[in-house]
Amino acid sequence: MSKHEMISRVENDKVLVLERVFDAPREFVFKLFKEPEYLKRWWGTHGWELPVCNIDFRPGGVWHYCMKCVDQNQEEYGMESWNKTIYKEIVEPEKIVYTDYFSDKDGNINEAMPAPEVTMEFIDLGAETKLVSRSVFDSEESLQAVLDMGLLEGITQTWDRLNELVETLKKN
After folding, report:
1. Among residues 82, 9, 8, which one has the least CA distance to residue 44?
2. pLDDT tens for residues 67-112?
3. Contact 88, 100 (CB under 8 A)
């Protein structure tokens, strides 16, 4: 397995841990998580875009966004998925802690869906950055529900897109 592949594991039955190394300095990778013009270029799976990306990047701030399937070859074509992230803690360029919610276009949280608390750690490896994501769910069942929805495949594609953007921006 190459160091640039995502590693995933479950801890304590309800914590999903994801790790991947990106070939860019920590400050550079961190910036791609906070600025809408970058998020729009990589957030989401292949064939999905962010037509709405409203971000207030500060503790207590909200990132409200819509992912829309624009790939006519996917059965989800035309579908929208709204999400709302509420930032709890930001230590630039080391860490982002937030709660991740499913929502509607008005930002109303869908209480029926799992809402993990996510800690993203950006570990400085010099010319590289190790990204470690820890998503804490309220129960084993909540974690299993999102895994059954394809969460791992989705995050793998999303982080692949992040890696493609890192490589593209490094060339410029």
Report:
1. 82
2. 999 999 999 999 999 999 999 999 999 999 999 999 999 999 999 9
3. no
Tell me the two tokens of residue 67. 């992912």
**HSE toward the beta carbon, residue 106, CA cutoff 13 A:** 2
- C-alpha span between 33 and 58 (Å, rounded): 12
- Hey, what are 114's tokens? 């799992």
For the chain, the C-alpha Rg in angstroms (whole number) is 15
Give the integer Cα–Cα distance in Å for 2 and 5: 6
For residue 76, give both structure tokens: 């989800």
Q: Centre a 10 Å sphere on the Cβ of residue 104 and count the other Cβ atoms it contains.
A: 12
- Write out the two tokens for 106: 């008005």
Question: What is the number of alpha carbons within 13 Å of residue 151 lying toward its C-beta?
Answer: 18
Which structure tokens are listed for 85?
A: 């992230």
Stretch 32-45: mean pLDDT: 95
Among residues 33, 22, 10, 7, which one has the least CA distance to residue 130?
22
| 91 CA to centre of own chain | 17
Q: State how far the Cα of 78 lies from the Cα of 67, in Å rounded to an integer.
A: 10
